[in-house]
Amino acid sequence: MSYVVAVRTLCEFAAKVGDLDLRFTPAPTAQQGIAGHGTVVSRRGKHYEAEVSLSGLYKQLRVRGRADGYDPGYNRVEEFKTFRGDLHAIPDNHRQLHWAQVKVYAWLLCQTRGLKEINVALVYFDIGTQKETMLVEKHSADALELHFDHLCERFVAWAEQETQHRLARDTALTGLAFPHAEFRPGQRHLAESVYKAALSGRHLMAQAPTGIGKTVATIFPLLKASPGQKLDKIFFLAAKTPGRALALDAMELIGKGKDSAVLPLRVLELVARDKACEHPDKACHGESCPLAQGFYDRVVAARQAAVRAAVLDQQALRAIALAHQVCPYYLSQELVRWSDVVVGDYNYYFDISAMLYGLTVENDWRVAVLVDEAHNMVGRARKMYSAELTQSSFRYARKSAPKSLKTVLDRVNRQWNDLYRNQEAEYAVYHAIAEKFLFALQQAGTDITDLMTDEPDSVSPELQRFYFDAMQFSKLAEVFGEHSMFDITTDMSGPKPQATLCIRNIVPAPFLKQRFATAHTATLFSATLGPHHFYSDMLGLPDDTAWIDVESPFMAQQLSVRIARTISTRYQHRSHSLAPIAKLIAAQYSHTPGNYMAFFSSFDYLQQVLDLFAELYPDVTIWQQSRGMGEGEKQDFLARFTDGGQGIGFAVLGGAFAEGVDLPGERLIGAFVATLGLPQMNPINEEMRVRMDQIFGKGYDYTYLYPGMQKVVQAAGRVIRTQDDRGYIHLIDDRFARPDVMDLLPAWWQVQ
Ligand code: SF4
């Protein structure tokens, strides 16, 4: 059985030495990189061969990749590297790696075409000046073969180990038993659907209620499907830390199996750089951080130790990294290549420069993706593909900038002012972003890049921050389309007028589409994922994506759901709603005393009802969510909901207590939900409504109704957590009785 390795992976494994050096090396955007490659190719003759696919064998190792170009006229293989700024700023060990790569391509070409010798070229293309610097060496085929053999020999023992691991892993997974004695109700349906989706290479959206064990029900079938489907990796992606913790617990449970024999399965947790960094006061290069110094020399032993561990969560990985004196964050990035299951945040696969996605494409991995609590994806993805520039921050940056940047930054300021000179309303949406402004911004970006390369100490933190914001803004401006809006919000209240510019993504589907298409199978699951067409339209899922609504393990008799049809919580009726709502809460409380939550659409509304309630019913214990609660305060709030306790917690819809909170049994016996949770009607949302109408013909539903009802169902879902729970839900607003709204409530509820 041969082991397949990409040229880049082989070289990074076998030819990278010395320090980790992430000192500012000006990186072009992906688009600039692609455009740069295109420019270089367009300058070559008509017989030039671009993107030459190559592959070769060394023992049981198959090495494959794509050379950027081959010029038969000059018998020259070329590798393009786009950059900005100073060529000399590229660290030596990076350049050494570039040579190693192009020399592998050169050998593969010699071998395929029977060449005795070849010219080997590194072409550095400056995307700012559009100039090429070509470094050429002539090599004989024999010398290149030696180089190739040497690299492969360093890798071959590892490849042998990996092949053995894969065999052992697949054998163990084939015989893997479900980790519990039996499936919970609904759990088998979910697990079988995930399995079938993996077998047919399709995607799945699964709405599955709380308490059925969704995490195990989604990971287990993918592990079972892995050998047959030749899955290289499973990515479990979560919106928040608790989701990651649940996945790691599930892996531990599955990994141990019934007979406690540990599975040969490598599980890796990815955490954000700021959480994993051991030296937050230092920079990521050998002269500053001891864990970056000699990183590539020591990572060899660290990697070997790490692949022997079963579950590498943050603590386990940290211990190995520190034992080998390498940076834990960058060690985790290295280990992605050698792991079977990777647990991390959504952004590692979905954001604009997602590492897991990039590696999947580069290595041609067959991956299965799990998206936990997938109702969060729309909001999170919109943020990933949005960018904002505030003029006040820009002005701070300009003030702190050295004189050499004065002209370019003044130009940005002038163009910025021109953008809103004639804007009469405080907020306005534009269909395009003025070219002149973008050009000025890009020019400033180029000049700041040069400065960061030549005199890094002269760049203030304010200027650096603005620079990164401007880069993100420029990147998104390059791909601006109907999926996003460009809006300007002005502020004329201060001594100087100012404006905030925002590229605001509304429909992330065009960005995510390719990411889903790249995965062999993906399952998105959540307790509230309806209506499914809304999520599949927003997220760009393929047309043949399957949908299941897993039956609830709960019985209608467990929950009394009532609609307060005589109360309107519409904004104009709010003051009239306060007394009826207070009365309703008090009546329910006196009927069945216990712990309740009352959810409101805003802190203001919450406060108004709470004040009246406290005045009318001073004997009832109440707890209040306040704005900006810290982690400790949140824990204190939840700790008040004790078994057998009595009181009412006032909280906001969509807030910290309306989702991901587990208060089983008598810790919570009922919830009041006032309003349909509709997002506020403001110019941004109204513009979004218009756009949604144009794209999907469902402006109101996609902007207001579905996101609002998702919050309502999430909040109400806090009440019944187990099959023994009993509880009450009061939906407070006459609109809850509308058939289209009732359709959005869980099927197992029996509304009275
Ligand atoms: S420990 Fe921190 S500063 Fe050092 S290399 Fe890692 S992330 Fe960078």
Key features?
alpha/beta, 19% strand, six-stranded mixed β-sheet, globular, eight-stranded parallel β-sheet, 752 residues, binds iron/sulfur cluster, 24 strands
Topology:
Layout: E1 3-6, H1 7-14, H2 30-42, E2 49-58, E3 61-71, E4 76-83, H3 92-113, E5 117-126, E6 131-140, H4 141-174, H5 187-200, E7 204-207, H6 214-229, E8 233-238, H7 241-256, E9 267-269, H8 273-276, H9 295-306, E10 311-312, H10 314-323, H11 328-335, E11 341-345, H12 347-350, H13 355-363, E12 367-371, H14 377-384, E13 387-390, H15 391-400, H16 406-420, E14 427-430, H17 435-454, H18 461-478, E15 484-491, E16 498-505, H19 509-518, E17 521-526, H20 532-539, E18 546-549, E19 559-564, H21 574-591, E20 595-600, H22 603-616, E21 622-624, H23 631-639, E22 647-652, E23 670-674, H24 683-696, H25 699-716, E24 727-732, H26 739-742
Parallel strand pairs: 1-3, 4-5, 7-17, 7-18, 8-11, 8-12, 9-10, 9-11, 12-17, 19-24, 20-22, 20-23, 21-22, 23-24
Antiparallel strand pairs: 2-3, 3-4, 5-6, 13-16, 14-15, 15-16
Helix pairs in contact: 1-3, 1-4, 3-4, 4-6, 5-6, 6-7, 9-10, 10-11, 15-16, 15-18, 16-17, 17-18, 19-20, 21-22, 24-25
This protein binds iron/sulfur cluster.
Iron/sulfur cluster binds at residues 20, 273, 277-279, 282, 284, 289, 291-292, 327, 329-330.
